[in-house]
Amino acid sequence: KQEVTQIPAALSVPEGENLVLNCSFTDSAIYNLQWFRQDPGKGLTSLLLIQSSQREQTSGRLNASLDKSSGRSTLYIAASQPGDSATYLCAVYPLGTGGFKTIFGAGTRLFVKA
Amino acid sequence: DVKVTQSSRYLVKRTGEKVFLECVQDMDHENMFWYRQDPGLGLRLIYFSYDVKMKEKGDIPEGYSVSREKKERFSLILESASTNQTSMYLCASRATGYTEAFFGQGTRLTVV
Predict the structure, then answer these.
(1) What are A's interface residues with B at a Cβ cutoff of 8 A?
(2) Strand, coil or helix: A88
(3) Do residues A110 and A62 lie in contact, with contact meaning Cβ atoms separated by under 8 Å?
(4) Which residues of chain B lie closer than 8 angstroms to A29, CB-CB?
(5) Are the CB atoms for A20 and A64 separated by under 8 Å?
(6) pLDDT in tens, A36-58
């Protein structure tokens, strides 16, 4: 059974620091992996989608990498800002499910101090 | 910009009431989903739909039903609301296949 783990559960950093959020999954048979951001009391905002044939994706200050064989993905945030404070979730799309049974991690709550 | 819109941000309903949560997407996506999110339990799939009038149960369908009469609209129905259905409800949509998912802003439902 596929499991997705995000460690740490919470992280506090000073403004301007570069940081890495981790996502690990137990079964490498995935099609895609997607990173989301969630602000308190709100829905999920898509940040990056990495297809299994890709190793990384970039959007602005965000860079996500994927290593399927080791079951790991990282989200790198450069020059963090207080506005980056949110919960970050990763989700995997297992092969053979048609994209209907997404498995989400519990998230990492990030706090960037001004 | 892609958009998934949920009809309410906050709802307060009484036990036993029939509750409708509405979700509309403007991306012509085939697939739509309803999740609930609870502290310590994460996101759990309630129902999904892969076409108009087609629906499939997710992991926790008990106490819920859904309706998809038009491609852009997916409704979640609580037949008789109970306090254990107090939660954040999230709607999502996605094109066919393993494509990027887009979520609505969420509905915080409180059943008293």
Answers:
(1) 31-32, 34, 36, 41-46, 49, 51, 89, 91, 93, 98-102, 104-107
(2) strand
(3) no
(4) none
(5) no
(6) 999 999 999 999 999 988 999 99
